[in-house]
Amino acid sequence: MINLNGCGTALITPFEKNLEVDFVAFRKLVRRQIAGGIHFLVPLGTTGETPCLEDKEKIHLLEITLEEAGKRIPVIAGAGSNSTKHVISTMNTLGKTGVDAFLIVTPYYNKPTQEGMYNHFKAVAESTDKPIIMYNVPARTSVNMTAETCLRLAEIKNIAATKEASGNYAQISEIIRSAPEGFSVLSGNDDETLSLVSTGANGVISVASNIAPELMSDFMNKLLDGDIEEARKLHHKLTPLFKNCFVESNPIPVKAGMHKMGLIENTLRPPLYPSTDKTLEIMESTLKELNLL
Fold first, then answer.
1. Are the beta carbons of 185 and 196 closer than 8 angstroms?
2. Active site residue 135
3. Is 273 assigned a catalytic role?
4. Active-site hit among 58, 118, 130, 135
């Protein structure tokens, strides 16, 4: 299917001051991630401001990611929507680039039942031969996919993993405990990675790794190698970054930090806007503590 062990980066989308996608900066960011030892890449997710991207922009961002990845690491494209038909159409469009898998969020706004979510993901999976990674993030979608529903879906051949950002440890633990062989569980929250991976999860799809790919890949390598003591030290070192990447709506703080590092313009597409001065100060202080400035 696909190797989803380790740290995957939920890539930001850099914009120029005129709000156009900065494809040159994006290519440099992808190269930085690969050089930093990141295990897989996830463009076109929430962190990438995907709802505000046009199809032609999405395709070019994927083309760049795939060119730089060069089959060395998997590329997983975000393709979620609250319409089953639209998800399938989007996957058909984006799949032509040759991406390795799709990340599909639970349908938002509509508030489907558990059976509705099951049928949604089943239809999506049956429409493609590529692996599907489900994404459960109730704070953004207003619906929670239960462990029971997730485990039912895990029996479908090409549903390969779930990205769990429910914050419900008991629920995620049950998924880890009962998942079929070959099904991966990925933390959707950086600050929960230590606890989840040390109890059997396979990795994380990270926001913080946009800023600190080397530290995050080292953290995950220590965890996967069973070096819990060193992983714990890195967790505590990175905790302020984990926390401060969410002092405003993601990806506002992470873009502020990357701007301070000279990597991108501090530009977002409306309805998101650049961070407050206070957030810039918080991120600058956090980066200095990590010796990244």
1. yes
2. yes
3. no
4. 135
For 254, half-sphere exposure in the C-beta direction (CA atoms, 13 angstrom radius) is: 26
Q: Are 292 and 261 in contact (CB under 8 A)?
A: yes
Residue type, 147: A
Ranges of beta strands (E only) in 18-167 are: 40-42, 76-78, 101-105, 132-136, 159-164
Is the CA virtual torsion 116, 118, 121, 122 positive or negative?
Answer: negative
Question: How confident is the model over 56-66, as a mean pLDDT?
Answer: 98
Catalytic residue (one of 58, 163, 255, 260): 163
Domains in the chain: ranges and CATH: 6-230 (3.20.20.70)
Tens of pLDDT, residue by residue over 172-187, are 999 999 999 999 999 9
Edge-to-edge strand ranges of the sheet holding 101-105 = 40-42, 6-10, 203-206, 184-187, 159-164, 132-136, 101-105, 76-78
Give pLDDT tens digits for 234-279.
Answer: 999 999 999 999 999 999 999 999 999 999 999 999 999 999 999 9
Residue 74: the pLDDT is 97
Here the tokens at position 146 are: 């239960």
